[in-house]
Design a protein that fits this description.
This protein folds into two domains: 160 residues, Rossmann fold; 62 residues, no CATH class. The chain is an alpha/beta fold. It is globular. Strand 1 and strand 2 form a beta hairpin. The chain is 32% helix and 24% strand. The chain is built from nine helices and nine strands.
Length: 254
C-alpha cells in the first residue's frame, strides 16, 4: 500500500468522541451533620461501563440514587442528555417485587407503567429468565431476583442504566453472567453506571471512580489507576488509593 493510500485509510481516521449521556457537577449531600458527598463531579458516556468503587460508607449508594433522580442533592447538579420512553433505569441493591406475581406479570406491570410497547418475553430473554416466566417471584433465587430487577431496569431502553451492587452476595457464575449482561448493554449504546464491591468485575469497566471520604480519590481506566498508584494490579491500586486501615467512613450509607 502506498504512503498516500495509507494516510487516507479509514482505519487511520480518529474515532468519533463518545456522547456524554450524564454530567454530574459538584454534587454534595449531607445527612444531619454528616457529610456523605462533597463536590463530586464526573461524566458518563454512552456505550461505556463506569464503575464506582469505595469502602463501606463511602457514599456509593447515595451518589447513585442522586444520579438516578431518587434523592435530591444539597448542592450541585445532574444533567441527563437523553430522550425516549425512559431516560434512566435503576436497579437498587435489593430489588423488591410483589411476591405473588409471576416473573412475566412483574415485567408486564412495569412495562404498562412506562407505556412501553416492548414484548414481555424480550427483556426476559435478554437476561436469561424466559424459561421461568411463569414462576412466582417468591420462588426465585436471589440471583434470579437480581436478573428480574435488571430486566425491569432496562425496560424502555434507557440511555442511562444505574445499577447498585448488581452482583452483591451472588455466586461466581451468576456474577460473571450479570457482568456479561452489563457489557452487552454498553455494546448496545447505553451508558452504564454501577457501584460494586467486586473489584474483579469493576476492573473490567471502561472507567472506574474511586470514592472515599466524600470525594473522588481517583478516576480513570483500570490500567490508568494501576499506573498512577504504582501498583501491580487493580485491587492493589484500590488499596493504595483508599488506604489499608480498616474503619468506618464518615458516610451513613454505602
Amino acid at each position: 500500500m502506498s504512503e498516500q493510500a495509507a494516510e487516507q485509510s479509514p482505519d487511520e481516521e480518529e474515532a468519533p468522541a463518545a456522547e456524554v449521556v450524564a454530567t454530574v457537577d459538584g454534587i454534595a449531600r449531607s445527612f444531619g451533620d454528616v457529610t456523605v458527598l462533597d463536590g463530586v463531579s464526573f461524566d458518563v458516556t454512552g456505550g461505556t461501563v463506569t464503575a464506582v468503587v469505595g469502602p463501606n460508607g463511602s457514599g456509593k449508594t447515595t451518589l447513585l440514587r442522586i444520579v438516578a433522580g431518587l434523592l435530591a442533592a444539597d448542592d450541585g447538579s445532574v444533567t441527563v442528555e437523553a430522550g425516549g420512553t425512559r431516560r434512566v433505569g435503576y436497579l437498587p441493591q435489593s430489588p423488591a417485587f410483589r411476591p405473588s406475581f409471576s416473573v412475566a406479570e412483574t415485567v408486564a406491570y412495569y412495562s404498562d407503567l412506562l407505556e412501553s410497547i416492548r414484548r414481555v418475553d424480550e427483556p426476559l430473554e435478554r437476561v436469561g429468565l424466559a424459561s421461568v416466566r411463569d414462576r412466582r417471584v417468591d420462588a426465585l433465587s436471589g440471583g434470579m431476583r437480581r436478573l428480574l430487577g435488571l430486566a425491569v431496569a432496562t425496560l424502555g431502553d434507557p440511555a442511562l442504566v444505574v445499577l447498585d451492587e448488581p452482583t452483591g452476595d451472588l455466586d461466581p457464575r451468576m456474577t460473571e453472567h450479570i457482568f456479561g449482561l452489563i457489557d452487552d448493554l454498553a455494546d448496545e449504546g447505553a451508558a452504564v453506571l454501577l457501584a460494586s464491591h467486586n473489584l474483579t468485575g469493576a476492573a473490567g469497566a471502561d472507567r472506574v471512580l474511586v470514592l472515599d471520604e466524600g470525594g473522588l480519590v481517583g478516576q480513570g481506566s483500570p490500567d490508568e489507576l494501576v499506573a498512577t498508584a504504582g501498583a501491580e494490579d487493580f485491587p492493589a491500586a484500590f488499596r493504595a488509593l483508599v488506604g489499608e486501615a480498616f474503619g468506618p467512613r464518615a458516610g451513613v450509607s454505602e
